[in-house]
């Protein structure tokens, strides 16, 4: 998100958000695609390769990984912002079969070829559900879900909309928590939201039902 904001500011392109979703016009979706599918994706892939990880970078457009459709937010037109309608799991399984780690930009297309900016948390949750994953881990730039500046260790899915309405959850944490709730309700056992601490962060999160950050669960 910060990389996109920097590029938009360099181009003197103003932007707004609706409940954590960036309103994206036709010009902006090209910029978002350039940043996420180009610069950011390849920086992550390169860092993983330098660490000995066999990473393979691509976007939701490639191989038709994600088929998207236009999203509206409470009846508002927020432009070229998409939601995932289907996931091509055979592509991911082929990479796994060849011991390649996918690094995915969430930029996606619809059945007519229109390109959409898809929220990364939404894309990750849809992928986790399609793959029938046990765990979904959102590694964020905050240590977990902060309520009054304190990390909540656990949040029930039934609490999420109330916390949003009360103003405790704002910005990009709104789609993150809504995506987490959807994943839990559709079969993912645990969703963790945590900050990056060190190279053991993911191993530690996967080895326990608790989290260094916040666990989202269904009652």
Structure explained in plain terms:
The structure is a single chain. The chain is α/β, with parallel strands linked by helices and 219 residues long. The chain has 2 domains: 1-118, Carbamate kinase (3-Layer(aba) Sandwich), CATH 3.40.1160; 119-219, Carbamate kinase (3-Layer(aba) Sandwich), CATH 3.40.1160.10. It contains 7 helices and 14 strands. It has a 4-stranded mixed sheet with strand order 4-5-8-7, covered by helices on one side. Strands 9-13-14-12 form a 4-stranded mixed sheet. Strands 1-2 form a two-stranded antiparallel ribbon.
Overall mean confidence score, pLDDT: 92
CATH architecture assignment name of the largest domain: 3-Layer(aba) Sandwich
Q: What is the C-level CATH assignment of the largest domain?
A: Alpha Beta
Q: N-to-C terminal Cα separation, in Å?
A: 32 Å
* Percent strand: 25-35%
Kindly report the name of the CATH homologous superfamily of the largest domain.
Acetylglutamate kinase-like
SSE series:
HEEHEEEHEEEHEEEEHHEHE
Please outline the major beta sheet. 4 strands, mixed
- Here the CATH topology of the largest domain equals Carbamate kinase
Q: Rg to the nearest angstrom?
A: 17 Å
Order of strands, widest sheet: 4-5-8-7
User: What count of helical segments does DSSP give?
Assistant: 7
Portion of residues in helices? 25-40%
The overall number of domains is 2
Which structural class best describes the helix and strand composition?
Answer: alpha/beta
Overall outline:
globular
Show unreliable segments: none
